[in-house]
């Protein structure tokens, strides 16, 4: 939206958009039609772009779409048990989910990335033996690299658990223990904190 009254949907992200947006650094301009030029692009990528007949630039609208996709992939999370995997392989919302207990809600291992698992595929059969295939089919936040990229805090007198990402500053996840209430919101600059490994 340019006026906060009329809103339109963003186009879906493609792998090419994400790859091109990852090469850009700096803050957003606030103008969807603004075109970024690649100042620090390696010769191989520049040659490929020119071969495709495309100039080495990207619009801010495309960069925004790609950044939202990156944030969702990296820090879109759900509490354990909120979704279940059926024996046929489809993933559905768990209607029996009544929230995590306060003890479980304070553990980073009780939250999962809501994307295709990566680390789970690398686990041994012994490590997978203790997992419930219907609820433990996603990657846990406790194995995120770098270690310590999440903070867990209690708010409102211990009635709300809040997780904050130190990798994407501005991402806040909340869960009210013993209820179905959970969600996340991002209020940030759209820049990944690449200095995090040196800050921990």
From TrEMBL:
Biological process, per Gene Ontology: axoneme assembly; cilium movement involved in cell motility; motile cilium assembly
Highest taxon above the source species: Eukaryota
Keyword tags: Cell projection, Cilium, Cilium biogenesis/degradation, Cytoplasm, Cytoskeleton, Flagellum
Compartments, as annotated in UniProt: Cell projection, Kinocilium; Cytoplasm, Cytoskeleton, Flagellum axoneme
Keyword Cytoplasm tagged: yes
GO CC, alphabetical: axoneme; kinocilium
InterPro entries assigned to the protein according to its UniProt record, in alphabetical order: RSP9 (IPR055316)
UniProt keyword Nucleotide-binding, yes or no: no
Primary localisation category: other
Protein family according to the UniProt entry: Belongs to the flagellar radial spoke RSP9 family.
Name of the molecule in the record: Radial spoke head protein 9 homolog
């Amino acid at each position: 939206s340019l006026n906060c009254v009329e809103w339109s949907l963003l186009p879906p992200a493609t792998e090419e958009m994400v790859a091109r947006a990852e090469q850009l650094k700096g803050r957003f301009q606030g103008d969807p039609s603004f075109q970024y030029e690649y100042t620090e692009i390696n010769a191989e990528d520049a040659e490929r772009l020119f071969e495709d007949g495309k100039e080495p630039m990207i619009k801010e609208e495309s960069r925004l779409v790609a950044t939202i996709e990156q944030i969702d992939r990296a820090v879109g999370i759900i509490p354990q048990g909120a979704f279940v995997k059926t024996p046929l392989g489809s993933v559905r919302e768990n209607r029996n989910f009544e929230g995590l207990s306060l003890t479980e809600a304070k553990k980073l291992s009780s939250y999962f990335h809501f994307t295709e698992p990566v680390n789970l595929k690398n686990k041994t059969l012994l490590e997978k033996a203790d997992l419930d295939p219907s609820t433990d089919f996603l990657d846990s936040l406790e194995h995120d690299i770098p270690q310590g990229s999440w903070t867990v805090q209690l708010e409102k007198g211990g009635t709300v658990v809040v997780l904050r990402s130190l990798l994407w500053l501005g991402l806040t996840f909340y869960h009210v223990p013993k209820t179905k209430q959970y969600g996340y919101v991002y209020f940030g600059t759209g820049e990944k904190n690449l200095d995090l490994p040196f800050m921990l």
